[in-house]
Amino acid sequence: MDGLTEMLKGTLEGCVLEIIGNEETYGYAITRRLNELGFTDVIEGTVYTILLRLEKNGLVQVTKRPSEVGPPRKFYALNDAGRQELATFWAKWDYLSSRINQLREGGR
Amino acid sequence: MDGLTEMLKGTLEGCVLEIIGNEETYGYAITRRLNELGFTDVIEGTVYTILLRLEKNGLVQVTKRPSEVGPPRKFYALNDAGRQELATFWAKWDYLSSRINQLREGGR
DNA sequence: AGTGGTACTCGGTACTACTTAGTACCAAGA
DNA sequence: TCTTGGTACTAAGTAGTACCGAGTACCACT
């Protein structure tokens, strides 16, 4: 499915937060995970910009660790602010999706 | 609920298409309808920019009619391209929301 | 030495919702 | 008459986010 770019705005960051919240992980793996989840067009550059933003906004704790198969990895874990942000994200998502579905069914 | 701005990107236009698809209507009324549907922070300026974009992209048929309580209104109705675009929007929405919910439940 | 997979950074672009200011019509009250 | 408030649209500019492109760099295998 392509042409999702605009619709992803505001939600992709939340998806990344959710993934990080499940398990401490790093950019390259997050991209792969998103791809296998059906976000097939999301590429690495996009994920890295989100990760840098999360770091800048103080929502994650970052740990650099060596890799056995390539350059060192930056592992990300949610801190308290990040968990709070994730909860807010889901609240917003629930709100939005319920309104949208209401609009769809409320034939006029 | 505030702070929905980013999340609305890509979906608000679809909502406007849906509203127009239900009934020929005009900008001011669309804004009111969105507000009562729960999109409380959406303001007129935003709706008008969407309507101008829809018109520019050839998705609507526009008819100007006098109003009894103010300046003339521009009524919008979907044409074939608009109905097609609306169907595409819902397909994208279904796809995205199913992936997001899958991510949410797929704890791991 | 070269290729391919892994891993991150950074400058710039495109698109969309929002902001702000402006124009303009009409009715009712001071 | 003037003002206020509700109705109705336009247009220029801002901010935020996903995407693009190029670059750097590590490692294993051939």
From TrEMBL, chains A, B:
The keyword DNA-binding applies. Coiled coil: none annotated. Keywords: DNA-binding. Pfam families: PadR. One of its GO terms (molecular function) is DNA binding. Residues 16-87 form the Transcription regulator PadR N-terminal domain. PANTHER family: PADR-FAMILY TRANSCRIPTIONAL REGULATOR, TRANSCRIPTIONAL REGULATOR RV3488. This is DNA-binding transcriptional regulator, PadR family. It comes from Streptoalloteichus tenebrarius (strain ATCC 17920 / DSM 40477 / JCM 4838 / CBS 697.72 / NBRC 16177 / NCIMB 11028 / NRRL B-12390 / A12253. 1 / ISP 5477) (Streptomyces tenebrarius).
